[in-house]
């Protein structure tokens, strides 16, 4: 099992001027510790439970590009991009650029979006949930078409129409950047995982809950003729990141998830200086998780 770190807070003690150096230090600390995944939220406003809209929030893909320039091995992605935030053709181009400039380390994390305040605040349309899922599926199809060099041409969907799906340069990742769908909805989200994704991300409160969701995913894979083993499973534990001295307890808890085939556990330390947290806490956790298989 591997450890990922999800950066969720941007209230640096030195203010905005401290964010660039802190992110660079976080990337360096993550790679030194053996962290395999580094992500940021994709939101316009900070979430209510994490300080509220008046707290600092950086644009996700600009931040990921900055992290790409300050790292060389860790996989990078947004956890996750709301389908409403960018037009699908632009999103595919943005993700491709990150993949090219990072040397093939980009993951396109995507979901149906949920934070209505930030949409209303910045004037971005926020359609009903059923339509957002329709747009999510069309977006996945558009990205895959843009990443297939043999299928440049029009795309005609219910919500999106593209005259061309040209994407040059092509991604470095083969056959394309990893697609990770975030969410636990059994009827729609996990079906989309089975049909389109290379990885899933589940927010989970227990191994039993995760086992159930993975059984549902397995059933969707069977229904569409997909090999369940081809999908990488990642989780965000509801308990959050381990604190100092909690390595043993956290490792015991994660051992139950490892038995289910979970590849990566992603934790979001609620710290204004995540580099120091990684240096103190993540390195021993990485070593312990690697022993779980």
Helix/strand/pairing class, anyone? Answer: alpha/beta
Average of pLDDT: 96
- The stretches of 5 or more residues where confidence is low (pLDDT under 50) are none
Helix content: 40-55%
Question: What's the overall geometry?
Answer: globular
Radius of gyration: 19 Å
> In order across it, which strands form the biggest sheet?
1-2-3-5-8-9-10-11
Largest sheet: 8 strands, parallel, barrel
- What is the strand tally? 11
Describe this structure in words.
The chain is α/β, with parallel strands linked by helices and 293 residues long. The chain has helices at 19-33, 60-69, 88-101, 116-122, 129-146, 189-196, 207-224, 247-259, 274-290; strands spanning 2-7, 37-40, 75-78, 81-82, 106-111, 155-156, 161-162, 178-182, 199-204, 232-237, 264-267. The strands form two sheets. It has an eight-stranded parallel beta barrel, surrounded by five helices. Strands 6-7 form a two-stranded antiparallel sheet. Strand 10, helix 8 and strand 11 form a beta-alpha-beta unit. The chain is globular and about 55 Å long. The model has no long low-confidence stretch (mean pLDDT 96).
């Amino acid at each position: 099992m591997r450890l990922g770190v999800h950066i969720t807070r941007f209230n640096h003690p030195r203010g905005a001027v401290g964010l660039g150096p802190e992110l660079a230090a976080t990337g360096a600390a993550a790679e030194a510790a053996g962290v395999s995944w580094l992500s940021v939220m994709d939101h316009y406003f900070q979430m209510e439970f994490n300080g509220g809209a008046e707290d600092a929030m950086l644009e996700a893909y600009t931040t990921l590009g900055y992290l790409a320039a300050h790292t060389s091995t860790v996989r990078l992605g947004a956890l996750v991009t709301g389908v409403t935030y960018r037009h699908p053709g632009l999103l595919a181009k943005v993700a491709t650029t990150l993949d090219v400039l990072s040397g093939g380390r980009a993951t396109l994390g995507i979901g149906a979006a949920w934070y209505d305040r930030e949409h209303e605040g910045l004037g971005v349309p926020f359609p009903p949930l059923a339509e957002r899922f329709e747009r999510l599926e069309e977006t996945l199809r558009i990205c895959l078409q843009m990443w297939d060099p043999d299928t440049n041409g029009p795309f005609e969907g219910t919500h999106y129409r593209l005259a061309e799906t040209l994407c040059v340069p092509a991604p470095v990742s083969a056959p394309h950047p990893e697609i990770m769908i975030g969410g636990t909805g059994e009827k729609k989200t996990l079906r989309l995982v089975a049909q389109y994704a290379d990885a899933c991300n589940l927010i989970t409160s227990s191994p039993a809950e995760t086992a159930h969701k993975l059984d549902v995913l397995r059933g969707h894979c069977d229904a569409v003729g997909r090999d369940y083993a081809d999908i990488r499973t990642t989780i965000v534990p509801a308990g959050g990141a381990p604190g100092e001295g909690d390595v043993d307890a956290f490792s015991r808890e994660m051992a139950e998830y490892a038995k289910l085939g979970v590849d990566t556990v992603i934790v979001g330390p609620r710290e204004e200086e995540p580099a120091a947290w990684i240096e103190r806490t993540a390195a021993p956790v990485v070593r312990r998780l690697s022993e779980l298989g």
